[in-house]
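Batch queue: ligand-bound targets. Current item pairs a single chain with S-adenosylmethionine. No template structures supplied; prediction is de novo from sequence plus SMILES. Inputs echoed for audit trail.
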Amino acid sequence: MDSTTTSLPEPDESGREHSARVVASLRSEIARSGGWISFAQYMQHVLYAPALGYYVAGARKFGDAGDFVTAPETTPLFARALATQVAAILEATAAREIVEFGAGSGALAAELLNALAASGAEPSRYAILDVSPGLRERQRATISECAGDRIDQVEWLDALPATFDGAVVMNEVLDAIPPHLIARRSGEWFERGVACADTLEWEDRPLADAHLQALAAQRFPPTGDYLSEINPAAEALVEDIGRRMSAGALLIIDYGFPQAEFYHTQRSEGTLMGHYRHRSHADPFLWPGLSDLTAHVDFTAIALAGERAGLHVAGYAPQAPFLLGCGILERLLEVGDPASVAYLREG
Ligand SMILES: C[S@@+](CC[C@H](N)C(=O)[O-])C[C@H]1O[C@@H](n2cnc3c(N)ncnc32)[C@H](O)[C@@H]1O
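Prediction returned. C-alpha cells below.
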C-alpha cells in the first residue's frame, strides 16, 4: 500500500461489506479467466460491474460528500462559460442537438440548459448517454431541481444515436474509460494484470495482443524499461462518435497530455491513480468498488482517432485560457456584488 493511503479514512461497515462483495466477484472473474485478468478488465469491473461498480452502485461519488469534485460541480460558472462555445456550435448546425456523455450528477446539463435558454440559444434536445444507468435518477433529480422548466428537453439514451448533428460534450469521461497497462522490461513486452492469491495483486504476463504491442512500440520511448497505459476503448469511442456525427463539434474536456509528454521517459510508471474521499492515491487495490480509478488522456491518440472518422482538430487548449476565452470572467461579474455570499459560492 502506498504511504499516502495509510492516512485515508476507513469506510463504514456497509462500505466495507460492499467492497468485500466487489472483491468476491473479482475473485470469481479472475478464476473464470484462468487466474488472471488484464488491468482494463479489472478497472471495468471495479467501476462498472452491474450493481457493484463504483459508478453503478449507489455511492455518492461526486461533490463534497463523495470522492472527487469536477469543474461543473465546483461552480455553475463553468457551464455558463461553456455555453458560449456550445451556442456557437449549435448556431452552425441545422438540428441543434446536444449529446452529453457521462453526465455524472447532471450538474453540467442543468446549468448548460439554463445558460443556453437565457441567451436564446436553446438546443432542440439534450440527450444524455452514460454507461451507468443508475446515475439517470440522480441526473433527472438534479436537472428537475436546477432547471425544472427544461426537463422535458432531456432524454436518456441507451446507445449512441445512428447520426447526430450538433454539440457532443464530455467532461472527464475519457479518463474514466479503462486502459490497458503495457510494460516493456529488458526489451520484452508484457501486459500488467491482476491475479488473486490471498489478496489482489499485480501479475505481468507476456503481451499476447499484437495490436497493443504495435501501439506501445510506436508510442513508448525507444529504449529502457517502461510501463504506461494504452487506451483503445477511449480511441474507439471517439472514432465511433466521429463516424456518427453529420455536422457539429465534439468538446472533450479532460486532463491529459499530447503523446510526447504522455510517454515522456520520466513518466515511466504511467498516470494511473485513485480517488477516495478527496484524496488521490496510487493503490488500485484500495477498497475496490469504493474508490475511483482514472488515467490521463493521450490527446494525440484521441485526435488521430477523430481524424480517422473524418473529424479535424478545431482547437486544443488548457482549460483556463479556454474558459477565459468563453467569457467566464464576464459570467462572474454577472453574479453580483463581490462581497455577496452568491459571489463567494459561485466564484
Ligand atoms: C469522472 S465521471 C465525470 C462525470 C461528469 N461528467 C462530471 O464532470 O462531473 C465519469 C462519468 O463518465 C461515465 N462514463 C464512463 N465511460 C463512459 C462511456 N463509454 N460512455 C458514456 N459515459 C461513460 C461514468 O459513468 C461517469 O458518469
